[in-house]
């Protein structure tokens, strides 16, 4: 579980593919300021009882737009209470003073950069990209080793530019702690203009899966863990059958202390508040719904993938499987030959474990051998066109 403090989604950049754009278009930018008297108690409640990853991340938009004194007070609390802090930034606004604050308050930095210029063109211009890369190098020198988040798009993973991206990842991967490769969500018309075609995503993903680097390379490390059933508690939230109404892996805290969900499913521009109970409707519906209708029925790797992140649902609908299903499937096929081919019996055993064995236990505590039900009454009903 991670706790994300998101005062606002205001940003100094205008990334072509940002999944928060539907909220910006709707005018939902968030509280805009951090009310520490409300945010700090909300963080404590969110992390209460957590036995690992007791840290919160200051998120955005661009979190370094928050007044520095506010950030310093927030990080001071984090250091005193949890021994460390975290921030996710595009890196352009980092300066020597921020690097001093990162060191003083033990702030782990996550950088969102798609590569050196022109690979970063979907995020920023040439000057901004150079600043981000320079600040990445400054973090290396200061001893604050960051993680790196890369979104695959037409500017960095097309046929012509993919080799440049691979070489750069190999280079910086010798110094980084972790590199996370993300397939792009297409949430707006602007985003569709820089999106890769399905076969390009598949080609890029397969090529990147084979890179050898010192940094942990995700999601490929998680995919190997899922196939071998090792360290399953360490895999990322997108593999854990996320419930979009509660997003258990992400506890958001807005600037006014209000609890919120992960923003990846806010496709209609509304940041819905958390439901009081978590459900498995999406998991169960995908398992029972045919591929042609947006589901995962009879998929060999359902036990590992579980439809992937609801924020990647086909047509922006979290009830559907990921729009990048084919790319994940192909990588699973290749990695399975590395970790060992699974028997049909073993696959069924793992599938039953994911679903809760052959019987379903509801929130009421009773069991049903037929069809699971939910008080929330959210069903996936495929719409099938009828020829006249």
Distance N terminus to C terminus? 50 Å
Can you name the CATH architecture of the largest domain?
Alpha-Beta Barrel
Largest sheet: 9 strands, mixed
- The CATH homology group name of the largest domain: Aldolase class I
- Describe the global form: globular
DSSP helix fraction: 25-40%
Kindly estimate the percentage of residues that lie in beta strands according to DSSP.
5-15%
Class of the largest domain, according to the CATH hierarchy? Answer: Alpha Beta
| Helix-strand string | EHHEHEHEHEHHEHHEHEEHHHHEE
Q: Mean pLDDT, as a whole number?
A: 90
Q: List unreliable stretches of 5+ residues.
A: 358-388
Walkthrough of the structure:
This protein folds into 2 domains: 2-218, TIM Barrel (Alpha-Beta Barrel); 281-368, no CATH class. It is globular. With 388 residues, it is α/β, with parallel strands linked by helices. It has helices at 21-25, 36-47, 68-82, 96-104, 126-142, 154-157, 162-172, 189-192, 198-209, 220-228, 281-288, 302-305, 325-339, 344-355, and strands at 2-6, 56-58, 85-89, 107-112, 147-152, 178-183, 216-218, 250-254, 259-260, 360-361, 367-368. The protein has 14 helices and 11 strands. It has a 9-stranded mixed sheet. It has a two-stranded antiparallel sheet with strand order 10-11.
Keywords summarizing the entry:
388 residues; TIM Barrel; nine-stranded mixed β-sheet; disordered C terminus
């Amino acid at each position: 579980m991670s706790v994300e403090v998101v005062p606002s989604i205001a940003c100094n950049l205008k990334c072509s593919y940002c999944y928060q754009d539907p909220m910006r278009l709707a005018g939902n930018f968030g509280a805009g300021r951090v009310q520490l008297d409300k945010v700090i108690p909300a963080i404590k409640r969110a992390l209460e009882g957590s036995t690992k990853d007791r840290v919160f991340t200051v998120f955005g938009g661009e979190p370094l737009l928050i007044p520095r004194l506010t950030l310093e007070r927030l990080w001071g609390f984090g250091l005193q209470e949890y021994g460390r802090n975290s921030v996710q930034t595009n890196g352009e606004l980092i300066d020597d003073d921020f690097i001093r604050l990162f060191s003083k308050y033990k702030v782990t930095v996550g950088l969102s950069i798609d590569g050196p210029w022109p690979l970063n063109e979907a995020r920023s211009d040439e000057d901004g990209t150079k600043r981000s890369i320079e600040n990445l190098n400054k973090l290396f020198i200061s001893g604050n080793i960051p993680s790196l988040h890369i979104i695959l798009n037409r500017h960095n993973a097309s046929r012509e530019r993919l080799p440049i991206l691979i070489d750069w990842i190999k280079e910086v991967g010798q110094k980084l702690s972790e590199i996370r490769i993300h397939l792009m969500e297409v949430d707006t018309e602007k985003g569709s203009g820089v999106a890769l075609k399905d076969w390009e995503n598949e080609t890029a993903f397969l090529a990147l899966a084979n890179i050898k680097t010192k940094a942990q390379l995700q999601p490929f490390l998680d995919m190997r863990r899922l196939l071998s059933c090792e360290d399953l508690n360490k895999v990322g939230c997108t593999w854990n059958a996320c419930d979009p109404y509660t997003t258990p892996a992400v506890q958001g805290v807005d600037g006014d202390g209000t609890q919120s969900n992960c923003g990846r499913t806010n496709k209609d521009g509304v940041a819905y508040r958390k439901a009081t109970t978590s459900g498995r409707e999406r998991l169960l519906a995908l398992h029972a719904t045919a591929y042609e209708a947006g589901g995962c029925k009879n998929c060999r790797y359902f036990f590992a993938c579980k439809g992937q992140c609801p924020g990647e649902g086909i047509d922006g609908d979290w009830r559907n499987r990921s729009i990048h299903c084919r790319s994940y499937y192909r990588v699973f096929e290749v990695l399975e030959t590395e970790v060992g081919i699974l028997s049909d019996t073993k696959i069924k055993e793992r599938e039953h474990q994911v679903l809760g064995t052959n019987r379903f236990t509801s929130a009421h505590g009773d069991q049903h051998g037929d069809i699971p039900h939910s008080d929330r009454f959210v069903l996936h009903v495929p719409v099938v066109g009828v020829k006249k």
